[in-house]
Design goal:
CATH architecture of one domain: 2-Layer Sandwich
Structural class: alpha+beta
GO molecular function: energy transducer activity
Protein name: Energy transducer TonB
Shape: elongated
Number of strands: 7
Strand order of the largest sheet: 3-2-7
GO biological process, one term: siderophore transport
CATH topology of one domain: Fusion Protein Consisting Of Minor Coat Protein, Glycine Rich Linker, Tola, And A His Tag, Chain: A, Domain 2
Radius of gyration: 58 Å
Distance between the termini: 123 Å
CATH class of one domain: Alpha Beta
Keywords: Cell inner membrane, Cell membrane, Membrane, Protein transport, Transmembrane, Transmembrane helix, Transport
Organism: Fulvivirga lutea
Helix content: 25-40%
Strand content: 15-25%
Number of helices: 6
Mean pLDDT: 75
Length: 227
């Protein structure tokens, strides 16, 4: 009796053969892929012929504006001009002074500089004198007075405002501080505080010119600083 062949068993027996054949084919394809060379084709692009265009620029001509003709002035010939004699009626007769009148009666008595009272002369403060005005006790004592009585405005504190104020005033012959004004301020109530302090400040030693007390203009910086 003839034995029947099992197809599954035969496939399993030939499985190794099929694997080796597949591996060989894969290796052959890989080698062929690496060895394959693509021929490079150089494409020649024909040059385009561009028609040349000649640009013609017309010449620039300058147009000169002719100058206007100068007017000709005819000067009269002095030899031909005859002056008419003056008419006596065109002149008014001069008033002759009376015999009992003098020039001082007409013009008044002359007034000399010595006759003008000193009160009528304007007093202008000096900017610089031989002996400049100073605070009593020195500038250090004066700034201690400022620091002691200075009140920092609440608005300036809230807004964080600080800086230097330039104040100007005049020290008169008696040492009083007058004509106080702010040249450069920072606002927020600080300028008004400086004016208040200088109005209540103690007297200074007045400035002197040739030993005589005079009015002198002074500029003083005062700084507001937040600690």
């Amino acid at each position: 009796m003839e034995k029947r062949k099992n197809p599954e068993k035969e496939l399993r027996n030939k499985q190794g053969l099929f694997f080796n054949m597949g591996l060989l084919i894969a290796l052959t394809l890989c080698v062929a892929a690496f060895e394959y060379e693509v021929e490079e084709k150089i494409v020649h692009v024909p040059e385009l012929e561009v028609d040349k265009v000649d640009i013609y620029l017309p010449p620039i001509t300058e147009h000169k504006i002719p100058e206007p003709p100068k007017p000709k002035l005819k000067m009269p010939d002095p030899t031909r001009v005859k002056a008419a004699p003056p008419d006596p009626k065109d002149f008014e007769p001069l008033l002759e002074p009376k015999k009992d009148e003098s020039p001082t009666d007409l013009l008044g008595e002359p007034r000399y500089l010595e006759d003008i009272p000193e009160d009528d002369l304007p007093e202008v403060p000096f900017d610089w004198v031989e002996e400049m005005p100073k605070p009593k006790g020195g500038y250090e004592a004066f700034y201690q007075f400022i620091s002691k009585h200075l009140k920092y405005p609440a608005l300036a504190r809230r807004m964080g405002i600080s800086g230097k104020i330039s104040a100007q005033f005049v020290v008169d012959e008696k040492g009083n501080l007058i004509d106080i004004q702010i040249l450069k301020g920072i606002g927020a109530g600080c300028d008004e505080e400086v004016l208040r302090l200088l109005e209540k400040a103690p007297k200074w030693n007045p400035g002197k010119q040739r030993g005589v007390p005079v009015k002198v203009k002074t500029i003083l910086p005062i700084e507001f600083r937040l600690d």
